[in-house]
Design brief:
mainly beta
């Protein structure tokens, strides 16, 4: 944005690269202004009628317990993260560990990361507020919004028999809120749903 509130963008791919563009926020169209004078740039285009979230993962150089907090067109592990960053496939838990190449929203996954870094993804918010659980340990992920554990209810009532556990650079920690992008273990004594 300039001082008048005009939105500008940078074309980073296609047949015209590294050009400054005036972006019409009502139509999503743009008018080329001119070259930027440098060789490398990136841009993100947004649809004017769709709310987008930019989500940043803070990844550890080890196994990370994570989830997919937004809706994206390509949910494959390679579509979400650069190949050089990921050292494994994703693993979820369904009474035993299952290897996955594509991530589902509201599910937790173990993924091994090559180097500590921040990595951002863009998507539309996931506002689904129910997560299915089974009478065992469950590996879940929240939607796009921070959810205090104290506000979570279950159907049927009182089926959770443990706290929610996250995993960070020091090991397992008890969670007081479910944070988008993180994965959580929780044990239930009956099948049902969590209401976030």
């Amino acid at each position: 944005f300039d001082a008048n509130g005009t939105l500008f963008g940078l074309i980073g791919t296609g047949t015209i690269t590294n050009e400054l563009v005036l972006i019409d926020t009502l139509t999503g169209g743009g008018t080329k202004i001119g070259p930027m004078g440098f060789k490398s740039g990136q841009a993100i285009a947004f649809h004017p009628d769709v709310a987008n979230f930019a989500f940043s993962y803070h990844l550890f150089q080890k196994w990370n317990l994570m989830s997919l907090p937004v809706e994206v067109p390509d949910k494959s592990l390679n579509g979400l993260f650069p190949a050089a960053l990921v050292q494994s496939r994703a693993y979820t838990y369904n009474g035993g560990f299952t290897r996955k190449d594509t991530l589902d929203n509201r599910t937790g996954y173990w993924v091994k990361i090559a180097s500590a870094s921040a990595h951002s993804i863009i998507g539309t918010p996931d506002s689904t507020d129910t997560i299915g659980v089974y009478p065992r340990w469950n590996l879940i992920g929240p939607n796009s919004f921070i959810t205090p554990v104290s506000s979570i209810t279950t159907d049927p009532v009182s089926i959770l028999v443990t706290n929610f556990f996250a995993y960070d650079d020091t090991g397992y920690v008890t969670a007081d809120s479910l944070m988008p992008g993180r994965g959580y273990w929780v044990k239930a004594n009956a099948a049902g749903t969590l209401q976030l």
